């Protein structure tokens, strides 16, 4: 089956993608590398996946990318993308959380 895993560079997304690939599925992983966690941590999460032949990666923001092309021919979507950090979501960064955690999902 063809799968899309959003938030693939995060802990949950990377482990989910690894399991899907191990089970023989084709995985397209999407992540925008938001700055809540360092890019280095996320790159380490992707290291093993990048070596697997049924894995492709898109460095893209779900809020702006054309989703119809992404989902064409896809059987399953595992939506793990989100801006992390509940405490940081209040105050001046609130709109950032609304954009990435709500509006991007509604598209």
How are the elements arranged and paired?
Layout: E1 2-6, H1 11-22, E2 26-31, H2 39-50, E3 55-59, H3 67-71, E4 76-79, H4 94-106
Question: In words, what does this structure look like?
Answer:
Strand 2, helix 2 (about 40-50) and strand 3 form a beta-alpha-beta unit. The chain is globular and about 45 Å long. It has helices at about 10-20, 40-50, 65-70, 95-105; strands at about 1-5, 25-30, 55-60, 75-80. Helix 1 runs parallel beside helix 2. It is of the alpha/beta class. The protein has a single domain, classed as NAD(P)-binding Rossmann-like Domain (Rossmann fold, 3-Layer(aba) Sandwich). It has a four-stranded parallel beta sheet with strand order 3-2-1-4, with helices on one face.
Keywords:
single chain; alpha/beta; Rossmann fold; 4-stranded parallel β-sheet; globular
Report a brief summary of the structure.
With 107 residues, the chain is an alpha/beta fold.
Number of separate structural domains: 1
Percent of residues in beta strands? 15-25%
Look at the structure and give the mean pLDDT: 92
CATH class: Alpha Beta
**Which CATH architecture?**
3-Layer(aba) Sandwich
CATH-wise, what's the superfamily? NAD(P)-binding Rossmann-like Domain
Shape: globular
Q: According to CATH, what is the topology? A: Rossmann fold
Classify the secondary structure makeup into a structural class.
alpha/beta
Largest sheet: 4 strands, parallel
Radius of gyration: 14 Å
- The succession of helices and strands, N to C, reads EHEHEHEH
Number of helices: 4
Helix content: 25-40%
What is the oligomeric state here?
A: single chain
First-last Cα distance = 23 Å
The largest sheet has its strands arranged as 3-2-1-4
Low-pLDDT windows of residues: none
Q: Would you report the number of β strands?
A: 4
